[in-house]
Design a protein that fits this description.
mainly beta; 10-stranded antiparallel sheet; 193 residues; Polysaccharide export outer membrane protein; 13% helix; 52% strand; 2 helices; signal; globular
Length: 193
């Protein structure tokens, strides 16, 4: 009996620690993006927290963190996805297309601005969709020596290489803690297990 209780306590502790993760767990592989070169395909194994099929929004959760994902029509009508389901989200963030200071009082958010087919992402399976998105995030820093911008958005702390000199100049004017809108080209894939 004591041995069974020890196993139950050990499993409970392991699940409790796993539920306290503060940032999404991400695995990745490398692909080639035109104009940039090798980039990482991020793969997230997440749980569905809520679904709004009419708006095509799926709120996903990993640990305590949740964020909305706009799912393009090519991935189906979302009627067979519900809270508690496990899904895989894969994404490739390509170039930063723009950076500007966000309006006063802006909160971290993600706005998907279009879904389109684009030849700029090579070596991706056919089911990936290329789209633009704007992330409203808290600016942390920009390092001109490495061209890396650091920010904290709805999915947690992130970094990205900025190749455009005009955008690099825009980022140099920001101060830590400023809210910023970063527009990206992104390849995206969504799949239920």
């Amino acid at each position: 009996m004591l041995k069974n209780m020890s196993v139950i306590v050990a499993v409970s502790l392991a699940l409790g620690v796993a539920g306290c993760a503060t940032n999404p767990t991400v695995t990745s592989r490398t692909v080639i993006v035109a104009g940039i070169g090798p980039v990482e395909v991020e793969r997230l194994d997440v749980e569905v927290a809520a679904v709004d099929p009419a708006e095509r929004i799926v709120v996903i959760r990993q640990g305590r963190q949740t964020w909305p994902v706009a799912v393009p029509e090519v991935f189906g009508n979302l009627q067979n996805i519900g809270p508690g389901d496990r899904v895989e989200v894969q994404r490739v963030e390509g170039v930063i297309l723009g950076a500007r200071r966000a309006r006063k009082g802006a909160k971290p958010a993600i706005i998907y601005t279009e879904a389109a087919s684009d030849p700029s992402f090579q070596n991706l399976p056919e089911k990936f969709v290329v789209r633009s998105l704007t992330v409203t995030a808290r600016f942390e820093s920009f390092d001109p020596a490495t061209s890396v911008v650091n920010y904290v958005g709805p999915a947690g702390a992130r970094t990205h290489i900025v190749s455009d000199p005009v955008i690099q100049n825009d980022l140099r004017r920001l101060r830590r803690g400023d809210m910023v809108e970063l527009t990206f080209a992104q390849a995206f894939h969504f799949q239920k297990y």
